[in-house]
Amino acid sequence: MTGSVIAADKSYRYIPVRIVFSVVFAFLTALSANVFIYIPFTPVPVTLQVLTVITSAFMLGSRWALASQIIYILMGISGIPVFAGFLGGPAVLMGPTAGYIAGFAVSAYITGFLFERGRTGSIFRGNTYAAALVSGMAGLSIIYFLGALHLFGYIYSAGATKTAAEAAGMAWQMGISPFIIPDLVKIFIAVNIYGLQRRRDEYNKNK
């Protein structure tokens, strides 16, 4: 049983398998969060979480991808060091990266939701790769929006800037612009991972 089949099949008999895969992706998110590089001018590290979150949305579908992120967040809140930088505990959700953690969960659901409808709808005419690319970009936008929004509030409330406009500029420079190119590469990889899995499913069906 593969991820893309799980996402497509709606029968109740696969619920235990979906739960297992959700837990697997929760642990993969923890691993990808801690493959990180800190950039000197920002508290937001470069990680592989975007790759894991978008891939989970393609493989598991909206609800179970969201479930995997909820499991991941609960692991972190409970004190397990699964957040980026091997951090854990509820205090992390008060820090500068909390918006991204929430963004991953929302993105997992929205990306999966858009992809589920896009690949079967008339807009992309059955082109699942186009549907995956567009839904992945939408999911990335959500991560950026929620992450930068929280970072803006964090910067502004800390009195690091004199005006809201300056805080917004800093949130852009620290929370979005350094990550655009690396994250686009991650989406491209996620789309191709899904493509490889889909071809494997089709091959197995035709055997």
Structure description:
By secondary structure, this protein is mostly helical. It has one domain: Arp2/3 complex 21 kDa subunit ARPC3 (Orthogonal Bundle). Helices cover 69% and strands 0% of the residues. It is built from 8 helices and no strands. The protein has helices at residues 3-8, 15-33, 49-60, 62-77, 98-118, 128-157, 164-175, 180-206. Helix 3 runs parallel beside helix 5. The longest helix has 30 residues, at 128-157. It is globular.
Helix content: 55-70%
Low-confidence stretches: none
The total of beta strands comes to: 0
Q: Quick one: biggest sheet?
A: none
Distance between the termini: 15 Å
Subunit organisation of the chains: single chain
Strand residue percentage: under 5%
CATH topology: Arp2/3 complex 21 kDa subunit ARPC3
Task: Please indicate the count of domains.
Answer: 1
Q: What is the tally of helical segments?
A: 8
Report the top-level CATH class.
Mainly Alpha
Query: What is the level-2 CATH architecture name?
Result: Orthogonal Bundle
**Could you tell me the mean pLDDT?**
90
List the helices and strands and how they pair.
Layout: H1 3-8, H2 15-33, H3 49-60, H4 62-77, H5 98-118, H6 128-157, H7 164-175, H8 180-206
Helix pairs in contact: 2-3, 2-4, 3-4, 3-5, 3-8, 4-5, 5-6, 6-7, 6-8
Keywords:
single chain, 207 residues, mainly alpha, Arp2/3 complex 21 kDa subunit ARPC3, 0% strand
Short characterization:
By secondary structure, the protein is mainly alpha-helical.
